[in-house]
């Protein structure tokens, strides 16, 4: 039996409210702003590694969404607190869940090789994910899971104040930028998040399956390195 018009409208309103709450957690207020959210904080000096530790302490033994039920470890993130480059993935996989570290599986090994080819090491950048617990069967994280976890990533970004953020794959790009655009449409094109330059590119796990796309990611990362080199003293 089909829903009545009134029931359908109620359902649409409920969905709209959930979407607006989700967008609000992402920092989107629905109206144009002359200053990006948290812009003043992002223009201030760097914050020490102790602040990252405070965020990790606040996260604690997180039970804010259903992903806590099946996890082995929270994967907080790792790297240099002075990193000029931050990489943001989707979420932990099986190996990351077991180790408590981001990008340690096959995709992580490919990411390491890419960084090395660029003259970087993991210790010089900062690596984190949109969600910090592994989704079951490595599915995409759900909107409410992202909404529960994203504020902690935003705090990490505010502490690090990286010069550039690279979003790896569809989920990271859409969640951080508040867009539904497919990764194929936005990769390689500069975006901004709270005043910080963002370069979307393919996820390393995608590149493991489609090697022909690796050259595109290499080109994206070349743009990143050129920008960082041009703003070395900023």
From TrEMBL:
Catalytic activity: Hydrolyzes single-stranded DNA or mismatched double-stranded DNA and polynucleotides, releasing free uracil
SMART domains noted in UniProt: UDG (SM00986), UreE_C (SM00987)
Uracil-DNA glycosylase-like domain: residues covered: 76-222
GO BP term, pick one: DNA repair
Pfam family, one: UDG
Listed SUPFAM superfamilies: Uracil-DNA glycosylase-like
Keyword terms, alphabetized: 4Fe-4S, DNA damage, DNA repair, Hydrolase, Iron, Iron-sulfur, Metal-binding
InterPro entries: UDG_Type-4/5 (IPR051536), Ura-DNA_glyco_family4 (IPR005273), Uracil-DNA_glycosylase-like (IPR005122), Uracil-DNA_glycosylase-like_sf (IPR036895)
Enzyme Commission designation: 3.2.2.27
A GO molecular function held by the record: uracil DNA N-glycosylase activity
PANTHER family associated with the record: TYPE-4 URACIL-DNA GLYCOSYLASE (PTHR33693:SF1), TYPE-5 URACIL-DNA GLYCOSYLASE (PTHR33693)
Family to which the UniProt record says this protein belongs: Belongs to the uracil-DNA glycosylase (UDG) superfamily. Type 4 (UDGa) family.
Identification of the protein by name: Type-4 uracil-DNA glycosylase
Organism for this UniProt entry: Desulfobacca acetoxidans
């Amino acid at each position: 039996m089909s829903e009545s018009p009134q029931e359908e409208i109620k359902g649409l309103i409920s969905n709209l409210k959930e979407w607006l709450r989700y967008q609000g957690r992402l920092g989107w207020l629905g109206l144009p702003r002359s200053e990006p959210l948290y812009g003043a904080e992002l223009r201030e000096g760097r914050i020490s590694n102790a602040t990252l530790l405070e965020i990790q302490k606040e996260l604690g033994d997180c039970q804010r969404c259903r992903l806590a039920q099946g996890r082995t470890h929270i994967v907080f993130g790792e790297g240099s607190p002075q990193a000029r480059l931050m990489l943001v993935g989707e979420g932990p996989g099986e190996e990351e869940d077991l180790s408590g570290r981001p990008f340690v599986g096959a995709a992580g090994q490919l990411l390491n090789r890419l960084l090395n080819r660029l003259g970087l090491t993991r210790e010089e950048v900062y690596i984190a994910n949109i969600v910090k617990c592994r989704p079951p069967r490595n599915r995409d994280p759900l909107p409410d899971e992202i909404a529960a976890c994203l504020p902690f990533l935003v705090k990490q970004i505010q502490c690090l104040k990286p010069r550039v953020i690279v979003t790896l794959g569809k989920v990271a790009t859409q969640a951080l930028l508040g867009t539904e655009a497919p990764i194929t449409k936005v990769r390689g094109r500069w975006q901004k998040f709270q005043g910080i330059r963002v370069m979307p590119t393919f996820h390393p796990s995608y590149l493991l399956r489609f090697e022909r796309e690796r050259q595109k990611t290499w080109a994206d990362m070349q743009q990143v390195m050129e920008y960082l080199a041009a703003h070395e003293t900023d």
